[in-house]
């Protein structure tokens, strides 16, 4: 490794750590809100970048680019449809949760369904994080760092040995951030790293295009749309591992859970200084998620054109691109940025798990006979144990047959969708109880496990199956609720800790985000760039014009509808 590579890596990593320490030391980390929610003082920009970098870690950058290398844009739905989920978060879930003044999702479940349901949800979250999310993050990060820096050659280790060394390094540094810094340190490091990460990733995209086009960006684009054009088809590509129809079934369920009720993601929004700031941050994340396919998937397609003939694995495509295209000094900088992204997701997950353990498991076990500092200390210890467990599990993910990203999504569905079922039922039905909802969750999980490991002859994509299991669980909950005479709801009074006034531009911003999502799919289809090259400029112009005009027309119609409804309510008070 060139000395400048090492110097630039260490320099940028230390700089971010110092900035995070300075910002975090001003925060009161002895209180629950101070340690776990950043003192409820986060702004929209901080929330948006923190959400993005928490999500943009190595399992996204390496995993999704690996899918781009394997099947092209047909897998972009995971990133693009997240925009719709973020709109749902901004308009529905975030105002609801902030009015309740909750710190964690199990807080809400307890207020709605009682302590038994809270315990079930808390342990589902922790098991999912420990068995799936954290090991995936650690493995992807270690794979990226070991390949980018050629750790095996540097230390004379085997590929397996270099992977384990990288895992240990990530685990130790990430644990220090999460266990001793609290959410404020996590968010500050996220924001700094997020800006550098975005710039660095665009630079990798630029270099990839330059190399593919032999110095000409236009020639690179010509190659992408004319050579293997099915790689740019997100709608009707013959080479897929996620069919387009799954966007409307299990994928949207998983994305709604992830953006609206996943503790790791929403903990940033719950730390907002107001509902409006939280909405700005969430929608910022939604917009950038759509645009992020340019750095999360397209480089993988470029790597396919450059190195597809070499027989490398999909998950090795992005690290190979970085290692071969960047000068040594920039390899160090980008390695530091990638390391920051890895640490961001790792410490964010540890921080959220520590929060849930301290608030929803440790404190109830102590029956209130504990101080806030004792709870924080218990959370720190649990976080340390969880980090070690994740490091032990991480190396086994290399055996996933469809790659890192699909492994993570498939096993996430086992835990996340039934949790979403309970949360949605709690929000929408006043009659549902723990006794009627827990059997619905159990129905989903039993069906999932049976058709995953028991009867395996049902040839249907797991995302379609996920939606079917969800409907079955919902049906069981509905049937039991209708038959139940026990309709008492465990309820706490709303206790909003911040201003709950909606952002004044919420409607237009939400519609624009949805329009951007639809535009992305239109462009990556036969009516967009998957067409004869002479038709592409006209196709893109029509798509963009339709999106802009459509957004303002729909915004006007929606405004007219609600203004009319508000006027009628004012004139007829009995209808209110």
* Bulk shape: globular
Beta-strand fraction estimate? under 5%
Oligomer: single chain
**Total of helices:** 24
Structure write-up:
With 576 residues, this protein is an all-alpha fold. 75% of the residues lie in helices and 0% in strands. It has 24 helices and no strands. It has helices at 3-24, 32-37, 44-55, 58-71, 77-80, 82-100, 105-113, 115-148, 151-155, 159-212, 217-226, 250-261, 263-270, 275-291, 293-296, 298-307, 317-325, 328-366, 372-393, 404-428, 434-454, 462-483, 506-523, 536-571. Helix 10 (159-212) crosses helix 18. The model is unreliable at 31-39 (pLDDT under 50).
Structure keywords:
576 residues, mainly alpha, single chain, globular
Brief summary of the model shown:
The chain is mainly α.
Question: What secondary-structure arrangement, pairings included, does this model have?
Answer:
Blueprint: H1 3-24, H2 32-37, H3 44-55, H4 58-71, H5 77-80, H6 82-100, H7 105-113, H8 115-148, H9 151-155, H10 159-212, H11 217-226, H12 250-261, H13 263-270, H14 275-291, H15 293-296, H16 298-307, H17 317-325, H18 328-366, H19 372-393, H20 404-428, H21 434-454, H22 462-483, H23 506-523, H24 536-571
Helix pairs in contact: 1-10, 1-18, 3-10, 3-13, 3-14, 3-18, 4-8, 4-16, 6-12, 6-14, 6-23, 7-8, 8-10, 8-17, 8-18, 8-19, 8-20, 10-11, 10-16, 10-18, 10-19, 12-20, 13-18, 14-23, 16-17, 18-19, 20-21, 20-22, 21-22, 23-24
